Amino acid sequence: MIDWIESVLHITVQMGTLYLLASLGEIYAERSGILNLGLEGMMIMGAALSFIFTLAYGHFAAIIISIAAGILMSLVLAVMAIHMRLNQVVAGLAITMLGLGLSGFLAFPDIRKNILLSLNPALPEQALMTQEAPKLPEISIPLLSNIPIIGRAFFHHNVLVYVSYIAALVMWFILFKTRIGLSLRSVGEDPATADSLGVNVFLVRYLATVISGGFAGLAGAYLFIGFHPFWQEGMTAGKGFIALALVILSTWNPLRAVLGAYLFGGIDTVQYRLQLFGLGAQSPYFLAMLPYLITIITLILISFENLRKRIGVPKSLGIPYSREQD
Amino acid sequence: MCAEKISRREFLGVARGAAIGGIVAAGALGAIAGYLGGSAAAPAKTTTVTSTVTSKVTSTVTAAAKPLKVGYVYVGPVGDYGWSYGHDRGRRWADERFGAGVESFYIESVPEAEVGGAIESLVARGANLIFTTSFGYMDATAEYAEKYPDVYFVHISGYRSGAAGNAPENMSAAFAEFYQLYFLNGLAAGAVTETGVIGYVGAYPIPEVVRHINAFVLGANYSYKKKTGKNIKAHVNWIFSWVAPDKARSAAVALVEEKNCDVLAFTEDTPAVLQVAEEYQKKGKRVWGFSHYSDMREYGPTAHLTGQIANWGPIYLEFYKMVATNSWVSMDIWTRIGDYMPYRWRKKVGESTAGQPEGTVFLAPAEPGHPQRVAARDQEALRRHERAPVRAFQRRWEPRRAHTRPGRRGQDQGR
User: Fold this and answer.
1) How many Cβ pairs closer than 8 A exist between chain A and B?
2) CATH of A2-133+158-311, one of 1.10.3470, 1.20.120, 1.10.30, 3.90.1570
3) How far is A199 from chain B (nearest CA, A)?
4) Secondary structure E strands in chain A
5) Smallest Cβ distance to B388: which of A4, A122, A228?
6) What is the pTM of this model?
7) ipTM of the predicted structure?
8) pLDDT (tens digit per residue) in B298-343
């Protein structure tokens, strides 16, 4: 039984990290009032580029490039949403489709071959044809990984999982315990007031969007080199949208996002294990549906006024800000 | 020969973002219509000849007859390395052998509900022969065969055709007896299993997949019983999708960790399950896997046992010839191992095309990860690797494992 819990937890963390990384950045964007629906597109771009760059230059370059790609795409979104004040839903979905298309194009065998050759002419033939790349190695944290049950589950992973632990803590601290976090939240609450108090609304929103893009790219890199290193067009398969749901579930709080991510990851994991005991084999969709059901319940809960106030739902989420407006 | 892809994006995984599916589908069809608008041309009228066809029809005759335009509809991306990749390889094989008189194009990642739109755009593009390559396309294919009597349709893996009497005469069906190969896979599984428990990651509980699972388990039980006198245990985990490497991974891991399976077969169109087996091998746990419709040895150099491989090319070529020579006969082809056309079924074993270039289904090269051979391969890979300074980063990040890959191909060629 203990082995079972340990192995389920281990894979839950593996799955959950993907959602966690994507939603951490998204929390910042939404707290500042920008709805980044391009998450899925940025993730898949991160995955595609990490595939190509892992083959060409190795994991480290791949991670950096994936983050950079996410940042670049989020800058496009930021210009559209903040500067041009376009509808954020439309702009975000456009970015998602752009990412899905562009990633498929870049990683398409013939195109990929040319890119790889121009990046690194010394690559062997095998590397030009393969759909696979080396996975990030798993590193055990010396003392912590010896703790029974949670040791192996939480401290025997690749480096990006540890990054997600630290990022969640740091981002929670910045968001709720520092002045920067206060400005960020105030911009999402009431940009006009924040502006009149001397907060640079545009700068804060740009930064928050860029952070969300960077994390989305990182999540894509994790999906490919950290979770399943086989390139598949559209391999994010809607996980970006699950991360969006997770942001609501976590009520825009990085620490609750950790719990939410592992809940979603856990459902993904347990789904196939319960099936082997005859549960859910008739319809796997019941368990797969649960995350969304929980998200809807959360949405209903935060529609109550006093709960809303206590959580601090970003009030001007998705509303473009302009000084002339009022 | 000029393979040209149209609208690859439109049909892509967008379907998975359920919320936006509708919008995108509309956009996709619009885009295809716009793209194809200019080139629409009705295919020439063809008469159906109902005499017996012989395989002697050569491509030299056919090339002059009329330009043959062939359209393919794939359920997954051609890069899936399994099912759709196999079909695309077959397309290229047939194009190459047919010669200059053929132009083929494909639409990939078409959701099963949207096959109608894909067929429409292929017809608009001027295709006079259309292959639809997923079970779920069957009814729509029959419907469109009725709508376009001048276009020929071939559906792969279904049971409706003019020959079978449940579809128009311009529709044929084709599939191969993979269950024989699955039985052979099973024999291998039963021979190597140490725990006596085998696992299967299944796509959908439809007859085709159930048939393959049954054959696999029968084979495994046969050889396991010979070896130990006991019955084998088998577990199936359904993932309810054809192309979903992440789900296949979770399902495969669950089979190994929950039920202690040490041989994993699968119906999912990527090497995900084999990759999982390979990862366990690297951790020192003996778990074995198979190839699936394409040679996947490179994804599991240690864990790969054998597997069922398909070359659809010969079937495609046969239909190319039929259409080009106006000698179409609706057929329901059930390819056997080595012999791919109904009229070749009576060949003697010695004349069989098993394993020959014109065979359709055959086993992947058996390659048990014999410890000594694996060690030798690692050595060789390491030597090659030191000559290529390209993966310095990887060596830093993954000191032991990254080396085993690049050298493999080169070594296999010698065998």
Assistant:
1) 166
2) 1.10.3470
3) 36
4) 139-140, 156-157
5) A122
6) 0.73
7) 0.79
8) 888 888 888 888 888 888 988 898 898 888 888 887 776 655 444 4
